[in-house]
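Summary of Year 1 activities. Much of the first year was spent building the evaluation harness for sequence design. The harness presents a backbone, in tokenized form, and records the residue chosen at every position. We chose the following record to illustrate the format because it has been used consistently in internal testing since the harness was completed.
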């Protein structure tokens, strides 16, 4: 998916056909405040591979605030193609399980995840009154860190779908302000701690909703 996004972005923003007229290009910065949730399952197996315990936690949620940047090419007055990128990681809270570390009753297993390099390629369709809709495909890298649980293998890249609606207000001199609500849906992921008596974590139903305020500059 990342190669597809990179190829499409290069075609859109680098070819002479699209780069010839700067008046059709826009850049912007966005403040995001998101609520994200998922269902989690942890499976504990012994050294023989026998499943000893399964722990489920459905509907776990967290919030995070982060910034992103984007660039758009206006195909016409109503339709634009854009690419957004989040340079900072979106971080989950640290999950702590007491007494499961294997070195005594007081040992704690601590696990958290970071969603890095969130990138979305999208199409934006805008009405004459400033209301618009967006549909896009997203990709991100997932980095899992832990304490007292071995080293969890990173799930790698993860893909998803984004749908959004918003309103754009023209402020003059090529500057506009956008307010937007977005919905995200990502693929399932799984990771284990690489031990003989291993823990395997599987995350499903990864979804989110994000409120955004953007400042846009058109050339």
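For this record, the design step produced the sequence shown next.
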């Amino acid at each position: 998916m990342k190669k597809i996004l990179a190829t499409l972005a290069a075609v859109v923003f680098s070819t002479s056909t699209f780069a010839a007229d700067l008046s059709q290009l826009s850049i912007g910065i966005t403040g995001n405040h998101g609520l994200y949730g998922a269902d989690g399952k942890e499976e504990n197996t012994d050294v023989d591979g026998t499943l000893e315990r399964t722990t489920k936690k459905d509907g776990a949620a967290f919030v995070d605030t982060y910034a992103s940047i984007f660039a758009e090419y206006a195909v016409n007055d109503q339709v634009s193609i854009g690419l957004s990128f989040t340079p900072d990681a979106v971080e989950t809270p640290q999950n702590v399980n007491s007494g499961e570390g294997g070195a005594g009753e007081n040992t704690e297993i601590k696990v958290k995840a970071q969603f890095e390099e969130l990138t979305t390629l999208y199409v934006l369709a805008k009405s004459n009154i400033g209301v618009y809709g967006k549909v896009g495909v997203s990709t991100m890298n997932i980095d899992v860190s832990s304490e007292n649980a071995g080293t969890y293998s990173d799930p790698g890249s993860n893909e998803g779908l984004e749908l959004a609606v918003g309103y754009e207000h023209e402020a003059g001199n090529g500057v506009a302000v956008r307010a937007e609500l977005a919905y995200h849906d990502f693929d399932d992921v799984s990771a284990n701690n690489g031990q003989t008596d291993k823990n395997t974590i599987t995350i499903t139903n990864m979804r989110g909703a994000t409120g955004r305020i953007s400042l846009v500059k058109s050339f």
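The longest strand covers residues 51-74. Quantitative recovery figures across the full test set are reported in Table 2.
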